[in-house]
Amino acid sequence: MTRSGQSPLINHHRRLWAIAITAIAAAQFCLFLNHRDVTSAHEGRVVATAREMLARHDWIVPYCNDVPRIAKPPLAYWTTMIAWSAAREQAPWLARLPAAICGALAVLLMMELGRRVLGRDGGVVCGLVWISTWFIVDEYRKSMADPYLAFFTLLSVWAWIAARERRSSSLLLLAYVSAGFGALAKGHLILLHLALALIPYHLAQPRRACHLSGRPTTTSRAIVHVVGVTLMLAIALAWPLYIYLHVPDAASHWRSEMIADRTTGGAKTGEIYHYLINLPVTSAPWTVFGIVGAVMAITGKRRRERRALWPLCWLVATVVLFSLVPMKKNAYLLPAMPAQTLLIGAALTGCIRTRRANETAASDRFLLVAHLVAAIITLATIVYLVVGLDSFEIEPPAPLLAGAAVGLFLLLGIRKLSPQARSLRTIVVTSLLFVLAILGVESWLVPDFDNRRSDAPFALETRTSSEGADMILIGPGPREDVLFYLGRPVKQIASIDALPADYRGVAIVTADQIDATRHANRGDELTVSNDRAPKDKLYLFRFPKAPPSQQGERPR
Fold first, then answer.
1. CA angle 143–147–151, rounded 5-degree value
2. Burial class of residue 246 in the structure, from the number of CB atoms within 10 Å of its CB (0-12 exposed, 13-18 middle, 19+ buried)
3. Do 193 and 153 form a contact (C-beta atoms < 8 A)?
């Protein structure tokens, strides 16, 4: 370590560190995206809408099931359409790839932000934490709007801070342009997230005003801000302005959507303490260091120990504000994950400093070694679970022996892995073990669980059974992941009573209409969707009912 507490390896090989961590990030975020079906309405809305926009050859007005879907901006649809058009294939993994690339590129911004806030060793540590935090990796591997909002929030925050320190007008313009693209992901929320990040930054780290591009005049700074705001508004407002002028009743639709969003019930609502109790989940497996970083920022006596005060204020402000909103979903905290990463990074960098009191050094050593052992046990457990999946067709006790062998080998070699507990090498090894464990979860365990309840087989059988005939939905819906796999819009009716007497074709029946449909006895039940909750099950019927001699066995 240098006299300043920074690793000489980081000082002399900073670029190599950046390349290595970015390469690992690319693998962590982008590998095996094809293992997982689209099984949620959140991803389904993006892929189903993008598919229909491509079918209509319309890149401006989003449609989903023949209905304009203008509640959300189109950035996620556009990235999916670009990926599909380039590859000439409408595969779910291609829809996820742009968001995954954003997650991998974000590690560079996170390293640079960590270096500016925590020092050079903080940059490397924050990069390692970013790629080994399960919540971050999981969210960026989904085709949704939240990863794009989070990425452009981070890019805008980094560019704003770098512009302030480098006195760069181009970086300041980049901050505004990034905010504009963030608005194309989830509208005005980008401004809220930027305020939650930058207001605490300016309050926690006041300094004299910077002069952009070496020109000290207030007029020059004002001109750059005016140009930046103009660019941001041009990017953010072009699409909604077009929709307002060309889609009938767009304004009333937006108003009703906003009211509905505020009163949304069901799974998205939660108690006011929802985010507080879920913070340990979003910071896993570094939860303990996140708590230590928060305590250091508040109680630290030296300025070096209080460097994480800004990210703490950023994270707390985000949690408090979104706790007051009725809708609760962990993905809404994704734009604040850089703050959490900085908190964890502050605690980790504090652990590897050379000049520490003996009792403090002992606790630091214990925390680092405990996390290294936890990483080894976690990886061994994941190996056991992955190898034991039915898709690998490996008989017991081979999976248990494989996991035990990996764990035992790593535990016996712990001194070789990191001979000095309080060192950067310990953090590197621990992070890489967690990276491998998370990759196993994301690439095999989660896909195995999701694919068991995937409605892709149900949609395939529905398409096969229809054979070009009419297709209709009886009940509320359709759920967008099913609509994507069906590959075509589906007409919807409220109940079996609204089905024409002479209807010939297939019908998808939702759970709340299945009893009435069966009671009507007008069609033959062909199949039922996979392992879903009873309220989410779908049933396939063919109308009209076949003569008794031609009826097959009713599905269980």
1. 140
2. exposed
3. yes
Give the separation between CA 348 and CA 324, rounded to whole angstroms: 32
Asked if 145 and 185 touch (Cβ cutoff 8 Å), the reply is yes
Neighbours of 517 (CB within 10 A): 22
CA 29 vs. chain centroid, Å, equals 10
CA dihedral over 112, 117, 122, 127, signed as positive or negative = negative
What pairs with residue 64 in β-bridges?
67
pTM greater than 0.85 (yes/no)? yes
SS3 492: strand
Element (H, E) at 528: strand 524-528
**Torsion-angle region of 251 (φ positive above 0: left; ψ -120 to 50: alpha; else: beta):** alpha
* 3-state SS, one letter per residue, for 370-400: HHHHHHHHHHHHHHHHHHCCHHHCCCCCHHH
Token readout for 161 is 């801070």
List, for residues 262-294, the tens digit of each pLDDT value: 433 344 567 899 999 999 999 999 999 999 999
**Rounded to an integer, what distance in angstroms lies between the CA atom of residue 500 and that of residue 474?**
12
Largest distance between two CA atoms of the chain: 91
Identify the bridge partners of residue 63 per DSSP, sorted by sequence position: 68
What's the CA gap between 28 and 136, in Å, rounded?
11
Q: Which residue has the tokens 């940059």?
A: 123
Per-residue pLDDT tens over the stretch 82-121: 999 999 999 999 999 999 999 999 999 999 999 999 987 8
Residue 540: helix, strand or coil by DSSP? strand
Query: What is the C-alpha separation between 424 and 197, in angstroms, rounded?
Result: 28
